[in-house]
Amino acid sequence: MTDPLAELAALRAADLPTHGGRTLAYVYDSALPGLDEFAAAAHALAAPANGLDPTAFPSLLRLEREVVATAARLLGGGVGTVTSGGTESCLLAVLAARDSRPDVARPSVVVPETAHAAFHKAGHYFGVRVVAVPVDPVTFRADPAAMAAAVDATTVLVVASAPSYAHGVVDPVAEIAAVAAGRGVRCHVDACIGGWVLPHADVAPFDLRVAGVTSVSVDLHKYAYCPKGVSVLLHADAGLRRAQFFASADWPGYTMLNTTMQSTRSGGPVAAAWAVLRRIGDDGYRELAGRALRSARVVREGIGAIAGLRVLGEPEATLLAVAGEGGDGTGGVDVFVVADELKARGWYAQPQFAHGASPANLHLTLTAANAGHEAELLADLSASVAAARELGAPEVPEGVLAAVRGLTPDQVTAEGVAGLLAATGMGGGGVLPERMAGVNTLLAAAGPRVRERLLVEFLGVLHS
């Protein structure tokens, strides 16, 4: 019999690296020696405990309350709940807003078009209409006047980002919150990715200290450098939070009572987060945030010196969107090819497709692990641009692109997707090619709804 742990290690060897700052999306590395092992030990101590019933496992209740208190101290107070991640925090903010207004027959939420897709997921799950409002085409910040015009009698929530994931810019929270308050509507600030960094940056107030802000979400598995699976949703007061809770006595078993969408919850994630927060401490987080912010600034300035690239908007946090220097976002450089060239040099940058005024670009998340290694990233990025310019755009048959452009969502079938995958060099069973520029070019040719359907079918292939 093979050793399962050895087999797992072999499988993990094919994944993107989670340490060293070379995976510029998905993971967050503090570069603190021993922190992972410390968190894993705390996780193991509490993993068997069940967060479903705080009276049975009071240790978890204490840990959660202290984690929430730490977040509240950083983000302007309030009462809160630990969730499984940023998406669940955003879902619950929408759910609480919807259920607080039973008088609204078909509720809606008003979001800038740069808001995280989690709000569209919430709309899909909860039957809430999502009204996406165009943002400033240059800064990519939300437009308070346009959002005010979108608020109507059905609006139960207005959303701002601090920062937006796609471009790393902070929306004008105070103005948006004033719009919401003036109409008697809740205002949620999605600070999932920035909430543990922005308090240490030179930005305008964005949290519960701002009049009119009623809730804030922040992920601890991002820049608090805790293991994945921990976020906090803060509400300004307990009355606002109440609609988030769920109770059901309408069956013969125990009365179900939940603070989140989950029932059974392992105590591991909250214990690990609690331990990491105490281990790093306020001064440690201030230093880590400073490193990540300085690294992002150095990389941003360095990209400005690379012919063929530009940073979109005016990012204020640790996220950068990098497009071609031309007005169409290309500048003679195909960013999907740049991504492939970066990967060949040991870096992963996340492709982002064109949407509205935002051209196709590459997303870079900088963390404390990137501090001191910016020159290496910039050198490889410059070399990748030069190689991409020489290679040109990927060769995808024009007939295939035309077919994709002409598709409607209801025309996307499993059989058709299999044919498209074959045309772009995709192997059987959803095996990805080494170079993804062709696949991304095909997906970019599709409209958003068609792209969604194509990727859903592909997801089915991966899981079959």
From TrEMBL:
<keyword id="KW-0456">Lyase</keyword>
<protein>
    <submittedName>
        <fullName>Pyridoxal-dependent decarboxylase</fullName>
    </submittedName>
</protein>
<keyword id="KW-0663">Pyridoxal phosphate</keyword>
<dbReference type="InterPro" id="IPR015422">
    <property type="entry name" value="PyrdxlP-dep_Trfase_small"/>
</dbReference>
<feature type="modified residue" description="N6-(pyridoxal phosphate)lysine">
    <location>
        <position position="222"/>
    </location>
</feature>
<dbReference type="InterPro" id="IPR050477">
    <property type="entry name" value="GrpII_AminoAcid_Decarb"/>
</dbReference>
<dbReference type="GO" id="GO:0004058">
    <property type="term" value="F:aromatic-L-amino-acid decarboxylase activity"/>
</dbReference>
<dbReference type="InterPro" id="IPR002129">
    <property type="entry name" value="PyrdxlP-dep_de-COase"/>
</dbReference>
<dbReference type="GO" id="GO:0030170">
    <property type="term" value="F:pyridoxal phosphate binding"/>
</dbReference>
<dbReference type="Pfam" id="PF00282">
    <property type="entry name" value="Pyridoxal_deC"/>
</dbReference>
<comment type="similarity">
    <text>Belongs to the group II decarboxylase family. Sphingosine-1-phosphate lyase subfamily.</text>
</comment>
<dbReference type="InterPro" id="IPR015424">
    <property type="entry name" value="PyrdxlP-dep_Trfase"/>
</dbReference>
<dbReference type="InterPro" id="IPR015421">
    <property type="entry name" value="PyrdxlP-dep_Trfase_major"/>
</dbReference>
<dbReference type="GO" id="GO:0019752">
    <property type="term" value="P:carboxylic acid metabolic process"/>
</dbReference>
